[in-house]
Amino acid sequence: MTEEATPDPASERPLEWLVLAADEELHFQTGPRIQTIYPWFALAIVGSLAAVAAVALELVPPLALLSIPAVVAPAAWQYARVTRTTFAVTTHRIATRSGVLGVSVRAVPLECVQNTQRSQHAVGRLVGYGTVTVEIAGGSDLRFWDVDDPAAIQTRLESAREQGRGADPDRSAVADVSGSLEQWEAVLEEVRGWRRTLERSESRSRSN
């Protein structure tokens, strides 16, 4: 399957949640596969029909119909979760939008991307969807979960990453150095301690 054939479930939605810089362009956007919520809808339908049938057969009182919203709610929540999640890759950043009751947006520069990995469970391998994990230097990973054709998505991410690194060699070289700011500040403080110790030793040697 070619990259051009990769479905982008979110591609028709405008990118209103991420403000692009003047020199920034959108590479692509996608989202979780909508078909992954079908099992939840099946459970909601079966549960609702079972409640109606039980009432019709007088196996349970009519009040049992009040349980139908509780059966349908998980499917509705999963639908909202999937349709309100978008993954985007620009010439500068990788960004995710998620949230059902609220909105959470996270964006990281391409030069902070250290690696990408993809995973598929048995059903995902069978029908062609999976998760691509983006490892971020000094931060938590980003996950493009339940996306169609994860191999193509990973390829496009790696291509965007290389283009982003090539656009600014100095920044990409910094991104290759692992470790958080706090860790490097601790290293710097230790080096300063060694320097002070050496200076005191040299001072004593001169005094003797």
From TrEMBL:
Keywords: Membrane, Transmembrane, Transmembrane helix
Composition bias, Basic and acidic residues: 159-173
Residue ranges of every copy of the YdbS-like PH domain listed in the record: 83-156
Domain of life: Archaea
InterPro entries: YdbS-like_PH
Annotated stretches, region: Disordered: 159-179
Pfam families: bPH_2
Parts of the chain that traverse the membrane: 37-57
UniProt key word Membrane: yes
The name this protein goes by in its record: PH (Pleckstrin Homology) domain-containing protein
Biological source species: Halopiger aswanensis
Source organism phylogeny: Archaea, Methanobacteriati, Methanobacteriota, Stenosarchaea group, Halobacteria
